[in-house]
């Protein structure tokens, strides 16, 4: 493997290392697993996110998000059924003893610590509070549970944990001699959000476009080789290298190295993730996005501006560059810069998705799986990689490395940019549905291979493998979203579902049709050689003359 190919391998591995789970980004991170908080009588509520809407002097103000406790009464789900109550700051602040405040069905705000959560709740209820807000001593949310020795609980007010920054804001409101009231309710998420439908279409459409581009390029290369053979050239290039400038065919060793490099890069992100490192990722994403967008636009526009696409000029450090590329580059660079500057605004996801899709399509055009054996090794390694870094890494690092990196917990940013995302339109909690590049790139390499094989083997859509591979990928991604909803939004490794569907379908069809050996070993259908056909034709003509 030459140096240029190795560099490409490392770059693509860096992208694939960000294989992320489709999930919803919500306000606040709930730490502590459900299985560590068993239910028992008087302490059997489901953990739910709670909206805390505030009013200052009768004017609607900020909204905060907390999490309901295992104990206490359940919180209403509809805003119209939630009562607006006055907010009081507890005295003493920890509410570990009976409050000195005079409460009249008010909501009391207390600090975490010094006694049990249930003790605070009992004291608040005895003081005639209608609800309890406990302010955490950290930025995260914490699930409030009961101690193992608490067997007889009878708490009749709801208790909600709020993050530290929310408590600071509420305390400022209360200490400014303002009248503050709050409303607590916990709206339910829709079973399916339209964002997931659009994200599914986006992922499937990206692979579809990339596969047709890759197959078209392969067919053009095959046609060019046939022309060279018919012209009886002395030195006939190998099919894989005709008109394949910049194409990287990976092998089984490269497939394994993908996962090795990807794992190392992921751990580096996890350990070094900070604000400056996040900014570095944004810069790298912009560079890749510019290259991808430029490649896609040049390929598209060259059909109408063929002369500009075939006319070149030498540029320092870049070599020969077409006039069409020079014309498109300023727009692509400006687009990426504008996105980077305004990436935190509400509509910035559009620019991120455009750059991301262009980058994925370009990578699927540059990197190719030459045969089914390589595709099987690559997807199998990706399958294990996804499971390990989402689930098994919890045992080693005490948290899911993949999920922490995807959300950008340690960077102060809203996650890394190597994602496709769409805002959850009908979700009262907002956030985004996201999918990592790797969940499109890895299956996309195998699906693009299937279409190249079908076209070069002159197979129909139904008799080929591409259509079935695309359907299998779509079903695998659909099952991923179903699992995500069944798991109440907990991160799911998409390749856990996509790989068995896609690879399993390919292997099963290949074996059933008798093509498995050919797909596994060579990846190309047997085609008659043009110069052999020409030789037979000449022999036939000579025989006729005699």
Protein architecture, described:
51% of the residues lie in helices and 13% in strands. By secondary structure, the chain is α/β, with parallel strands linked by helices. The chain is elongated, with a radius of gyration of 30 Å. Residues 1-5, 17-35 and 236-244 have low confidence and may be disordered.
Number of strands: 15
**Helical segment count:** 16
The side-by-side strand order for the widest beta sheet comes to 2-3-8-6-5-4-9
Helical fraction equals 40-55%
What global shape is seen? elongated
Q: How much of the polypeptide forms β-strand, as a percent range? A: 5-15%
> Cα distance, first to last residue?
54 Å
Main beta-sheet strand count, sense and barrel state? 7 strands, mixed, barrel
Q: Please, what is the average pLDDT?
A: 82
Q: From the alpha-carbon coordinates, what is the Rg to the nearest angstrom?
A: 30 Å
Q: Which class of secondary structure composition applies to the elements?
A: alpha/beta
| Poorly predicted spans | 1-5, 17-35, 236-244
């Amino acid at each position: 493997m030459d140096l240029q190919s190795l560099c490409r391998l490392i770059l693509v591995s860096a992208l694939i290392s960000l294989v992320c789970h489709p999930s919803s980004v919500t306000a606040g991170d709930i730490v502590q697993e459900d299985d560590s908080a068993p239910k028992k009588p008087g302490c059997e509520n489901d953990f739910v996110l709670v909206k805390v809407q505030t009013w200052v002097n009768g004017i609607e103000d900020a909204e905060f998000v907390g999490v309901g406790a295992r104990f206490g009464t359940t919180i209403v789900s509809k805003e119209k059924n939630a009562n607006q109550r006055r907010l009081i700051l507890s005295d003493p602040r920890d509410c570990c003893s009976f409050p000195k405040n005079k409460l009249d069905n008010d909501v009391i705000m207390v600090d975490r610590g010094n006694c049990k959560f249930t003790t605070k709740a009992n004291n608040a209820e005895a003081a005639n509070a209608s609800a309890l807000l406990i302010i955490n001593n950290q930025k995260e949310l914490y699930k409030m549970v009961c101690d193992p020795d608490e067997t007889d609980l009878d708490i009749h007010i709801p208790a909600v944990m709020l993050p530290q920054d929310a408590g600071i804001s509420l305390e400022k409101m209360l200490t400014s001699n303002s009248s503050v009231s709050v409303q607590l309710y916990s709206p339910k998420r829709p079973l399916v959000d339209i964002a997931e439908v659009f994200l599914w279409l986006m992922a499937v459409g990206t692979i579809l476009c990339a596969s047709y581009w890759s197959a078209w390029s392969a067919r053009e290369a095959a046609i060019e080789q046939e022309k060279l053979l018919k012209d009886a050239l002395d030195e006939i290039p190998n099919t894989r290298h005709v008109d394949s400038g910049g194409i990287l065919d990976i092998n089984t060793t490269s497939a394994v190295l993908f996962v090795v490099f990807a794992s190392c890069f992921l751990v580096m992100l996890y350990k070094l993730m900070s604000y400056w490192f996040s900014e570095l990722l944004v810069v790298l994403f912009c560079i890749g996005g510019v290259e991808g967008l430029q490649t896609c636009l040049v390929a598209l526009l060259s059909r109408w501006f063929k002369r500009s696409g075939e006319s070149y000029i030498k540029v320092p450090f870049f070599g020969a560059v077409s006039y069409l590329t020079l014309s498109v580059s300023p727009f692509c660079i400006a687009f990426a810069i504008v996105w980077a500057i305004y990436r935190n605004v509400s509509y910035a996801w559009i620019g991120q998705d455009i750059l991301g899709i262009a980058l994925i399509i370009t990578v699927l055009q540059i990197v190719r799986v030459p045969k089914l054996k390589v595709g099987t090794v690559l997807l199998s390694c990706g399958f294990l990689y996804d499971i390990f870094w989402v689930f098994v890494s919890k045992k080693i690092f005490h948290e899911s490395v993949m999920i922490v990196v995807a959300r950008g917990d340690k960077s102060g940013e809203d996650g890394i940019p190597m994602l496709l995302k769409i805002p959850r339109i009908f979700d009262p909690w907002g956030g985004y549905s996201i999918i990592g590049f790797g969940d499109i790139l890895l299956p996309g390499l195998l699906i693009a291979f299937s279409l190249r094989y079908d076209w070069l083997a002159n197979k129909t859509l139904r008799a080929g493998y591409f259509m079935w591979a695309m359907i299998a990928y779509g079903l695998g991604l659909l099952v991923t979203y179903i699992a995500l909803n069944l798991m109440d939004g907990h991160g799911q490794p998409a390749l856990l579902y996509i790989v068995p569907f896609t690879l399993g379908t390919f292997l099963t069809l290949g074996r059933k049709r008798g093509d498995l050996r050919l797909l596994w070993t060579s990846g190309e259908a047997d085609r008659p050689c043009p110069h052999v056909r020409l030789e037979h034709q000449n022999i036939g003509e000579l025989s006729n003359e005699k």
